[in-house]
Amino acid sequence: MRRTAAVWAGKATGVLSRFSRLGGGTTLPGDVARAIDPDVLRKLSRDLKHGAIVVTGTNGKTTTARLVTWLLEGAGHSVVSNRAGANLIFGATAAALERAGANGRLHADWGVFEIDEASLERAVEEIRPRAAVVLNLFRDQLDRYGELEAIAKRIEGALARLSDDSHAVMNADDPRVAEIGLNLKRKPLWFGLDDPAVALHELPHAADARTCPRCGASLIFEAVYVGHDGVYHCPNGDFARPAPDLVATHIGLNGFDSVALGVSGVRIELPLGGLYNAYNALAAFAAGNALGFEPAYIAERFRTVQAAFGRQERLEAKGRKLNVVLSKNPAGFNETLRTAVDLAGGHWFLIGLNDRRADGTDVSWVWDVDFERLRGRSRVVVPAGNRADDLAVRLKYAGVEAQPPESDPARAIDALIEATPEGETAHLLCTYTAMLDLRAELVRRGWAKPYWET
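Above: the chain's sequence. Below: its structure in C-alpha cell form.
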C-alpha cells in the first residue's frame, strides 16, 4: 500500500511539473515518492526482469548510458532509464516511477541508470545492479565533491558491495579508476585505448592524476588520450595501467561528426565526435560484452544512435547550424575545445558559464581551460551565463577577442546568430545549467524540444 501510494504521488508530481512547465518531472517526483516510501526505488528495482546497469564517472555518463540503452532496446528489451540526465538517487527514482503501472509495479526488462559519483553507494545498495561501469575521475565541482581521492574511496566502497554475480566494468587508462579496480576482490573487466596516432606524449597542464597512489612518485606516461587518461607506469614499479581486456585501436576522428574505432575484430562507427566519445563507445561496448551481446550486433547498433540533449545536440536556427556541447570541467572543456577548433575547424562560439549548485559554485577552474586554443582561430566568441563577466576576463588573458559578455540567454543567442553567417555551424560550449538556460530559450523559439522529450 505504501509503495503504491508513493508511485501514484510521484507520477502525479511528474505530470503536474511538466504541465506547469516548471520542470521536466525528472527529479521532483523522486523526492515526493521517497518521502512517502524511502524504499520505493529498492522495491521497483526488484521488478526489473533482467536487472540493471549503472554508469558513473565524471564525464560521459549520459552518452554511455544512452548507448547501453540503445543496445538493449535494439534487442527487443523494454528499458527504464534516466535519459534526461537527472543522475542523483532522486532522478533514478523518478525514472522508475514514470514507467511504473497503476498497481505500483515497474514493468520493464532492464534498468540503465547514470549515477552521480557521490550517489553511487546508495544506488548500488538500492538498485543492486548486474553491472557497474566506471568511466573516469576528473576534477569537478570541488566545492561539492572534494578532491579526487575522496570520491575515489567512495566509489571503491560502493563497488565492493556489488553482488557476486555482478560485473565492474572499468577504464584502465584512468589512474584513479585503475587504483579503485585493483583494490577490489574480484577483477574488473578493463577497457582502454591503444592508438599512438591520436595520443599526446605529455600530460596537459590541467591533468589531475599525476602520481603513483602507492609511493607518490610522478607517473610516467607513454601516451595521453584525454586529460590524465592514457598509458602510464610508476618509475619504481609500484603501479601501472592494468592490461585492458577490451582495447580500441585504429581510431578515426572526424570533428563532431563521428568517431571510429576497432574493437574485438569489428569496426565501430559512432555518429558523435571527439576522442572522449571513443571512451564512451568502448565503455558501452564493454558493458554490452559483459551482458553477452555479439560484437557485430553492437557495431551495427551504434551506427544509428542519436545524441543526448546538450551532448553534441544538433539544431537549426535561422539558416545556421547549432552544436550544443556540455563542457563542465577542465578535462571536458579542453577536449570539446580541441574537437571544435582542431578537428571541426570551428570559428563561431558561444561559451556559457554558470555557478549554480549543479555547476559548482567555484568557477576558478576556468583558468585551467585552454581557451588560448581559440586565439587567432575564432571569429566570434560570445561569453554567456551568469558568470559571463568572469569568462570575459579569462578570455582576455588568453588573448581571445570576444564580444561583450551577455548574461541574458536570449540576447546571447541573438548575438551569436547575428555574427554567424548563414549555412555555418556555431558551437555552444556550456556548463550544465548554462546549457539548460540556453536550451530553454531555444525551446521557447521553437528551435529545440524540451529536454525531457529528447
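The radius of gyration is 21 Å.
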